[in-house]
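Recall that a protein's primary structure is simply its ordered list of amino acids. Everything else, from secondary elements to tertiary packing, is in principle encoded there. The following example makes that idea concrete.
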Amino acid sequence: MDGPWAADVLYFQYTPLTVEYDLELDAFTVARADIHPPGRRHRLRLSILVTDREIAVEHIPLEAAIARGRGVLERLVEAHRGSAAELTADQTRAFDLSGRRIR
């Protein structure tokens, strides 16, 4: 599931068989990147989730959610890179398929 590194970012590669379920949010992680700023020991984890409701009611196939999630993730990595360099502890931020923060 670990994917390629790109500079200071580790990307995770998901498929419909490897998505991770988040019980608290009743959602699946479809895209993830961990930003490891150079010279810093703390990381920022960005996750894109799709809810079970979106899959069942809105009929979003997991393949489509994964593809959309990757696009959203790229924008979020660029937007959050600066704040990752200022962390004093590891942090996780979760977003929906539109890029809105949900946790």
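The CA atoms of residues 29 and 49 lie 4 Å apart. The two ends are 23 Å apart (CA to CA).
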